[in-house]
Design goal:
Elements lengths: L4 E4 L6 H13 L1 E7 L5 H12 L3 E8 L5 E10 L11 E2 L4 H11 L5 E5 L10 H9 L3 E3 L8 E4 L8 E3 L5 H11 L6 E5 L6 H6 L2 E4 L5 E5 L9 E3 L4 H13 L4 E8 L7 H7 L3 E10 L2 E9 L7 E3 L2 H6 L4 H12 L2 E3 L12 H11 L2 E6 L2 E7 L7 E3 L5 H14 L3 E3 L12 H8 L2
Parallel strand pairs: 1-14, 2-13, 5-6, 9-10, 17-18, 21-22
Antiparallel strand pairs: 2-4, 3-4, 6-8, 7-8, 10-12, 11-12, 14-16, 15-16, 18-20, 19-20
Helix pairs in contact: 1-2, 2-3, 3-5, 4-5, 7-10, 7-12, 10-11, 10-12
The chain binds shikimate-3-phosphate and phosphoenolpyruvate.
Family: Belongs to the EPSP synthase family.
EC number: 2.5.1.19
InterPro entries: Enolpyruvate_Tfrase_dom, Enolpyruvate_Tfrase_sf, EPSP_synthase, EPSP_synthase_CS, RNA3'P_cycl/enolpyr_Trfase_a/b
Length: 434
């Protein structure tokens, strides 16, 4: 068991908010200044597609808090219809958020465009993108398997709609919102299971909470969005890896500064504290409409096994499930997950990816369509085990944390994949080593 102690001041800026700040900047009239934009490959892919569709984007390194160098991004736009027809397919690389959310904007532009990605992204479901955009009047073609390339025949005449989200997906909610900003009239999106709400917050949209627990998001069409500045807090999904490191390590204490504490993103904290984890929040405050603060974590022995089945909780920890399951397996020998079929549609089939690797590490698991169970650990492999990363940053980081914290020999088939969301992952862990 290794000891990790210290303060983390250079966690990556939030990936979800970075994407949205750039996309909203491209729809705003004037100059949008984004402070602390993420250097992660996924967010850089969003800047790349914006530039390839005619938006002026510049990026520079400046001094930030705690003596860190941070990125400032400047986006200049003339509003909702400032895009130009791209000369080539728009490359979204590994980023589902880029492909799906930008599709909502392209559907409203009066030209044809095509979105493509790397081999992982080309396998992910895009029917959820095509369905609402077709209802609004855009022409969308997908592969016969319902995947990218996403070919879009955009129109300036999108019609507003009332849309009930068929899956609890903030990406789908956001792409419909971005399309609806261009439509002639008011669109209403109904979500029965809450997903992250950054788009609504950043656009200042009206939301109506219904007595039955549903939420309606109201999007007025064709309103000018004046450019504003954004500050991006640290990424709570990245923080989860360091929380797990602190919990699993020996005699560890880590404080992570200025993390986004939006309740739709930190569901993993009450889940872990209910299992006995020593985690606390300090210094919480609101900046730019988002809650931010520090997360303090101390090593916890005898963490209770996590059992996750409530669909609202599943949606609230969707990106943390790889780390939570690996943490629970290593800390308690057990884990149970249900109602999480969405986990099979991420950068990899994460249910399969976690099970395959836990089995390599000697755990007994059972996989079913909407989840999996870790039943116990039959044996510990004698030598080093190489974990298969499946082109998936969260799979790589979850197992890397387990290896670093426990001292077991866990190697990664492709460590570079962490750069998708957390380029300084290994450096931060190294610096925390006591
Ligand atoms: O809106 C977002 O920023 C995201 C939403 C989630 O995807 P889904 O919308 O597919 O659930 C999440 O898994 C992804 O990492 C980021
Ligand atoms: C699912 C993820 O991202 P995306 O869908 O944007 O590729 C993720 O980062 O875990």
């Amino acid at each position: 068991m290794a000891v990790f102690k210290g303060e983390v001041t250079a966690l990556p800026p939030d990936k979800s908010i970075s994407h949205r700040a750039a996309l909203i900047g491209s729809l705003s009239e004037g100059v949008t200044e984004i402070t602390n934009f993420s250097a992660g490959f996924d967010n850089q892919s969003t800047l790349g597609v914006l530039q390839d569709a005619g938006i002026e984007v510049s990026q520079q390194e400046v001094d930030g808090a705690y003596g860190c160098r941070i990125r400032k991004v400047i986006i200049s736009s003339r509003g909702l219809w400032s895009f130009t027809a791209p000369e080539k397919p728009l490359m979204c690389n590994n980023s589902g958020s880029t492909m799906r959310m930008f599709a909502g904007i392209l559907a409203a532009q009066p030209f044809e465009s095509e979105l493509v990605g790397d081999s992982s992204l080309m396998k992910r479901p895009m029917k959820r993108v095509a369905d609402p955009l077709r209802l609004m009047g855009a022409g969308i073609d997908l592969s016969p398997a319902g995947t990218a390339p996403v070919r879009i025949r955009g129109t300036r005449d999108l019609t507003p709609l009332e849309y009930r989200l068929p899956v609890p997906s903030a990406q789908v909610k956001s792409l419909v919102t971005f399309a609806a900003l261009h439509a002639d009239g008011e669109t209403r999106i109904v979500e029965s299971i809450r997903s992250r709400d950054h788009t609504e917050l950043m656009l200042g949209l009206e939301t109506l909470d219904q007595p039955d627990g549903e939420r309606v998001i109201v999007i007025p069409g064709r309103k000018t969005i004046p450019a504003r500045s954004f500050y991006i807090p640290a990424d709570p999904s990245a923080a989860c890896f360091l929380v797990a490191l602190g919990l699993l390590g020996s005699n560890s204490e880590i404080i992570i500064r200025d993390v986004c504490l939006n309740p739709t993103r930190i569901e993993y904290i009450p889940l872990l504290t209910a299992a006995g984890a020593d985690i606390s929040i300090e210094n919480s405050r609101i900046i730019g409409g988002e809650a931010i603060g520090d997360i303090l974590v101390r090593t916890t022995r005898a963490l209770k096994p996590l059992v996750i089945s409530n669909p609202t909780v599943v949606a609230g920890v969707i990106d943390e499930l790889p780390m939570l399951s690996v943490l629970s397996a290593f800390a308690s020998g057990e884990f149970e997950l249900y109602n999480a079929e969405e986990l099979r549609t991420k950068e990899s089939d994460r249910i399969n990816a976690i099970v395959v690797n836990l089995e390599r590490l000697g755990f007994d698991c059972e996989q079913y369509p909407d989840g999996f169970r870790v039943i116990g650990r039959r044996s510990r492999p004698a030598g080093q085990v190489t974990v298969e990363c499946f082109d998936d940053h969260r799979i790589a980081m979850s197992f890397a944390v387990a290896g670093r914290a426990t001292g077991e020999g866990i190697a990664l088939s492709d460590g570079d994949v962490v750069g998708v969301s957390f380029p300084n992952f290994f450096e931060i862990i190294e610096n925390l080593k006591a």
